[in-house]
Specification:
This protein is of the alpha/beta class. The strands form 5 sheets. Strands 3-4-5-6-7-10-13-14 form an 8-stranded parallel beta barrel, surrounded by 4 helices. A 4-stranded mixed β-sheet has the order 15-16-17-18, with helices on both faces. Helix 4 packs across helix 5 and helix 10 packs across helix 12.
């Protein structure tokens, strides 16, 4: 049930998901922190991409001016109404999205959640027109180039997902799915998938190695059709979706994981729902996302995922596991340690949003900085040599500056930042550097920094 996106306008594709990591902020509990405290928690954790399941004004107002990117949800209960009445869709988008832009960075609208493959056939039939009416509303309001429309699917839409290459959409789903995919293909929306190795393992503990589900060392599986090797279940689930899309004629559509997570507690028939397993899954998932890699079937499509969920939500219905997916407990303390700090540990001084410069550099740092600058200058000069005779472009002023690491990975890392002068590009490049005798937690550092910076990673050899 996630969302992030490649927003398509007539002139350009806007990026609605920064980096690779996002989170679902559900609120089916009356004892969780207020939205303003949640913002502090998210900013300290350096989580920029957030998905909610409604468009609650108090949440949208709390996110105002924070730079956090938000996907709002149009609940399932509104799908039939929005499908039947375009004016209602226009008013909903106007009141719940347009009214908060641009101060609140709403980058997407998720129309319904896991509608197809569910038990309400009328809602399934209504979904496509609801999506179209909401999209047309964004067009009329002039926000279609910054707000992407999509809907998330559970794995119930697939006939079979093992091995991945054999996956296709169920017969009853395919007739509704194909026109939906055709529309999303036209407007540049991804296929949003809620993928849960936890559920797959819970239903098939005798057939699935728990290490395979938890990103732990294991033999993995080989798809006998593609001969691709999978060392974790999430990659296999995603590639199963890619296979189904290709079978339906949408090979180029991107798959975004809109929900994935692991429960830390559950009923007697859910023995894998433990704090230890939840920590292992979510910690290893962060490392997996930090590598900015694709899947075996789509190695060039960087995996992006929203984690489910921010908080435990005790008022949810269903099995106990459904209430215990939170990285944080209701009081804002961590459920288990994956590198985040709880609310009680957060202070303004430790906010990761401001990276303070280091003013005293070691000789090694200074020498390395100059070396990198020389290499970059040489590369630029060679480029100019090759393009002689062509119109000269304005030279960019590139200055290397050492900045402190965010302290999140608890190591004194070397971080080198280049500012790109007056080129209209406000971004910076950050270079993480480590000696091999220095315990450099690259996975942690990458996750923190990927959200806001374009990274180049190096490691200094002995």
């Amino acid at each position: 049930m996630h969302f992030f996106h490649l927003l398509v306008s007539a002139q350009q594709t806007a990026r609605a998901f920064t980096g690779t990591y996002g989170i679902n902020y559900g609120r089916i509990a009356d004892n969780i922190p207020s939205p303003d405290k949640v913002v502090k928690l998210l900013r300290a954790a350096k989580i920029k991409n957030v998905r909610i399941y409604d468009a609650e004004p108090s949440v949208l107002n709390a996110f105002k001016g924070t730079g956090l990117e938000l996907v709002v949800g149009l609940p399932n209960g509104f799908v039939k109404e929005m499908s039947a009445n375009a004016d209602h869709a226009l008013n909903w988008v106007k009141d719940n999205v347009k009214a908060f832009l641009p101060d609140t960075r709403i980058v997407g609208i998720a129309v319904g959640n896991e509608v197809l493959g569910g038990s309400d056939n009328e809602m399934e039939v209504a979904l496509l027109n609801a999506v179209k009416n909401v999209y047309n509303a964004t067009k009329k309001l002039g926000i279609s180039d910054v707000v992407q429309i999509s809907t998330a699917h559970s794995q119930a839409v697939f006939a079979d997902s093992f091995p991945p290459s054999y996956c296709v959409f169920k017969d009853g789903v395919a007739q509704l799915m194909k026109p939906l995919l055709e529309f999303f293909s036209k407007i540049g929306s991804p296929f949003c998938l809620n993928a849960y190795p936890f559920l797959a393992y819970t239903y098939n503990p005798d057939k699935i190695d728990i290490n395979y589900a938890l990103f732990q060392p294991n033999e993995g599986i080989v798809d006998n059709k593609t001969h691709l090797h999978y060392d974790n279940l999430l990659d296999a689930q995603i590639d199963a979706a890619y296979a189904a899309l290709e079978d339906a004629g949408f090979r180029k559509m991107e798959v975004i994981v809109t929900e994935t997570g692991w429960a830390s507690d559950g009923d007697e028939n859910e023995p894998a729902a433990t704090p230890s397993n939840a920590r292992t899954y979510n910690y290893n998932l962060r490392k997996r996302l930090a590598k900015r890699k694709g899947t075996p079937l789509r190695p060039k499509k960087m995996l992006k995922a929203y984690i489910f969920a921010l908080f435990n939500e005790y008022q949810k219905t269903g099995q106990s596991s459904e209430k215990n997916f939170g990285l944080f407990k209701a009081d804002g303390s961590i459920s288990y340690d994956v590198g985040f700090s709880g609310l009680q540990d957060i202070s303004a001084a430790s906010s990761l949003l401001s990276l303070k410069p280091i003013f005293s550099y070691s000789k090694e740092q200074e020498a390395f900085s100059k070396s990198i600058d020389r290499r970059r200058t040489g590369k630029r000069l060679r480029k100019e040599e090759m393009s002689r005779g062509k119109k000269k472009k304005r030279k960019e002023e590139k200055k290397a500056t050492w900045i402190s690491c965010c302290s999140w990975c608890l190591h004194d890392c070397w971080c080198l930042s280049w500012n790109f002068g007056n080129t209209g590009n406000s971004s910076s490049r950050v270079l993480f550097v480590s000696n091999s005798n220095h315990n450099f937690n690259i996975d942690s550092a990458v996750e923190v920094m990927t959200t806001f910076f374009d990274l180049i990673l190096y490691e200094i050899p002995d």
